[in-house]
Design brief:
With 492 residues, the protein is mostly helical. The protein has 18 helices and eight strands. Helix 15 packs across helix 16.
Length: 492
């Protein structure tokens, strides 16, 4: 999560948590009185359907009369934009006058499409503008439904009963993950969650904003707006926005899903994209395909070398070893690469990755809780705080020099036992930076068998060597925030 996104989420949290609380007078006047009784009129809505209560409520409020025939609701059918606008207009009219058609009647006119008076009603209220012109007849998306419903009733009627849960869960990237900063009508969607009108389609609260809205889903949202007793109280754990509890290592890797099945060995951008694709999915194998005659030992050795080099940039992911399974020409053309660690056997990979992440999260959250890291700090200042923590809480393990099997090559040992060599220092530091949303990688100098951090801080790339910063008995800040030339000058 980038720092700028956290700032946006803090502003959004204020809206989701505080909202506009209902006044006592308005809250007491916000009742929607039933105008009829539902007695099983819809043959395709059974009492054990998840949407039974909401369809029943809509029918009794006079907001739905079925679809196609009086005895069918068609719960799985699509809802058009025109129908969404109509439902919202009727809901607002019912609230204001007790007559669901009063808004339409006030905005009616001769000729035109049947839905135009309903659209004109919402336009007069500022709920919609001209965004749906020319598209009223097509199926509506869930995001469009959220947009219309978010303005259907005066906001002072709607209490943000889930405000803290949404601000925490969404702000930390653990819930509603399919709604991003670029999602159309994002704020409207989040308001529906805050009000208990939406709850998501799975355990992580996914909204599926681009999917079509079904009649049953629409009925549920409209009924929850009208009837507070039908609203959803989310059971999401509420933690401070800074908390990274439940984050995983794959959450720290950005990938747009691009995967190249046969990247050129010289194209490090393609190879890096494949590595990020794998890591972001929480996997450690890649299956590539090349022309039959290309797959031989020499080629596969080179392939492993470049992919392991690319993975080195993500040292916090714990992988420093690679193996390949392939069948030479003429028996096959696929190569499966498996990433692992030389520090522990295959059965321990997941354990050490999870424990390393847990240690880092504990440090991150403690630094925030104690005020060592604050919201008004720049990325440069935050990175310096974690540089200080690494140097104060670790010492160089001279007994591990030259021993590639020592756990001091891992971030795990730095966190667990306070010992490390350069790749352990760098792995732990990069992990802490990425928990802050700071983009970083590594610089490897093979001639010196040394590795350190390269981080983008407030738009500028800096070289940071926590290993050298911890070698004099006092923290050497001259190795924090170096240029590349300054970093390399140490070895000339």
């Amino acid at each position: 999560m980038k720092i700028n996104r956290r700032i946006i989420m803090l502003a959004l949290a204020a809206v989701l948590v505080c909202g506009v609380l209902p006044s006592r007078a308005l809250a007491s006047e916000a009742g929607f009185a039933p105008v009829r009784t539902y007695e099983g009129q819809f043959s395709d809505v059974s009492p054990d359907s998840w949407f039974y209560d909401t369809v029943k409520a809509l029918y009794e409020l006079g907001l739905t009369n079925g679809s196609g025939s009086p005895d069918r609701f068609d719960p799985g059918g699509d809802l058009t934009v025109a129908e969404v606008v109509t439902m919202a207009s009727r809901l607002r009219s019912l609230y204001e006058t007790g007559d669901s058609e009063s808004g339409r009647d006030a905005c009616g006119g001769d000729g035109g499409e049947w839905y135009q008076p309903y659209a004109a009603h919402l336009q007069s209220l500022g709920v919609i503008d001209q965004e749906f012109e020319g598209s009223y007849d097509r199926p509506a998306s869930r995001a469009e439904m959220a947009h219309v419903l978010a303005g259907a009733l005066p906001r002072e009627l709607l209490e943000p009963i889930n405000g803290e849960a949404v601000a925490s869960g969404y702000g930390r990237g653990l819930y509603i993950r399919d709604v991003t900063e670029d999602t159309l009508y994002r704020d409207d969607i989040l308001l529906l969650y805050s009000w208990g009108v939406a709850g998501g389609s799975d355990g992580s609260g996914s909204f599926q904003p681009g999917s079509r809205i079904s009649r049953s889903e629409a009925a549920a949202m409209v009924a929850r707006l009208a009837c507070s007793e039908l609203r959803l109280l989310l059971d999401w754990e509420v933690l401070p926005l800074y908390s990274r509890k439940d984050y995983t290592l794959e959450d720290l890797v950005e990938s747009d899903g691009t995967f190249y099945s046969s990247p050129d060995l010289s194209d490090m951008e393609m190879i890096d994209a494949d590595v990020r694709y794998m890591l972001a999915r929480g996997e450690r194998t890649l299956t590539l395909a090349y022309p039959d005659k290309a797959v031989n030992k020499q080629f596969v050795d080179q392939l492993m070398q470049v992919f392991l080099y690319a993975a080195r940039d993500y040292v916090e992911q714990t992988y420093n070893s690679i193996s390949a399974l392939y069948y030479p020409y003429p028996n096959g053309r696929e190569v499966t690469l498996t990433f692992s660690s030389s520090l522990y056997d295959e059965s321990q990979v997941d354990r050490y990755r999870e424990e390393t992440m847990a240690y880092a999260i504990a440090v991150h959250d403690r630094m925030w809780a104690e005020g060592a890291v604050t919201e008004d700090m720049s990325e440069y200042e935050r990175a310096r705080v974690y540089y200080t923590w690494i140097c104060e809480n670790c010492r160089y393990d001279f007994s591990a020099v030259g021993g590639v099997s020592s756990m001091s090559h891992s971030g795990w040992r730095l966190f667990a036992e306070g010992l490390a060599v350069c790749d352990g220092y760098t792995a732990a530091y990069n992990l802490l930076l990425k928990l802050e949303g700071i983009s970083c990688g590594t610089y490897t100098l093979d001639s010196e068998n040394h590795i350190w951090t390269v981080a983008e801080l407030d738009g500028t790339d800096y070289h940071i060597d926590t290993t050298w910063g911890d070698q004099t008995g006092q923290i050497a800040y001259r190795f924090f925030g170096m240029t590349e030339a300054e970093a390399l000058a140490r070895f000339s």
